């Protein structure tokens, strides 16, 4: 049952450029763009390679594993829907596949450390999914 005093969390708004990433999450995979000209992988989705400006990009599936690059702990939510979740961490994860991405975190805030291994998981939200990072030492929810 929804609580009218507590709004639901808004989800992402996929567009044609980013849809393969969001569709991948719904399928349980992580996809990033890979440049056909120079091989660089990038996230978030763009119309050109961020290194060589080639427009020849291909979506590739990558392992949803990486390491904590940095994080911040939110004590005062920027949106009322997250007010009950504070404090929570927002991570920058460096994927083993190369690109970095910003993601929510599920787990023990006190255990966070730079270089800590994490695994990305998809969580349903509205008509799409969002990505969260969990530490690989914690049991993954089924
Ligand atoms: Zn390139």
TrEMBL record:
Residues 22-57 form the ChsH2 rubredoxin-like zinc ribbon domain. Residues 1-20 are annotated as: Disordered. It holds the Pfam family zf-ChsH2. It comes from the Bacteria. Signal peptide: none annotated. Residues 7-17 have a biased composition (Pro residues). Residues 59-120 form the ChsH2 C-terminal OB-fold domain. PANTHER family: BLR3430 PROTEIN. This is Zn-ribbon domain-containing OB-fold protein.
């Amino acid at each position: 049952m929804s609580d009218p005093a507590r709004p639901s969390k808004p989800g992402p708004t996929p567009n044609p450029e980013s849809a393969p990433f969001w569709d991948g999450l719904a399928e349980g995979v992580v996809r990033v763009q890979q440049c056909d000209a120079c091989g660089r992988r990038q996230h978030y989705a763009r119309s050109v390679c961020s290194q060589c400006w080639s427009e020849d990009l291909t979506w590739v599936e990558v392992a949803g594993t990486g390491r904590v690059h940095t994080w911040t702990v939110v004590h005062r939510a920027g949106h009322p829907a997250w007010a009950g979740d504070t404090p929570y961490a927002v991570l920058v994860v460096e994927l083993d596949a190369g690109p970095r991405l910003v993601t929510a975190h599920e787990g023990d805030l006190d255990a966070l450390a730079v270089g800590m291994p994490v695994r990305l998981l998809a969580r349903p939200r509205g008509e799409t999914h969002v990505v969260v990072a969990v530490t690989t030492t914690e049991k993954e929810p089924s």
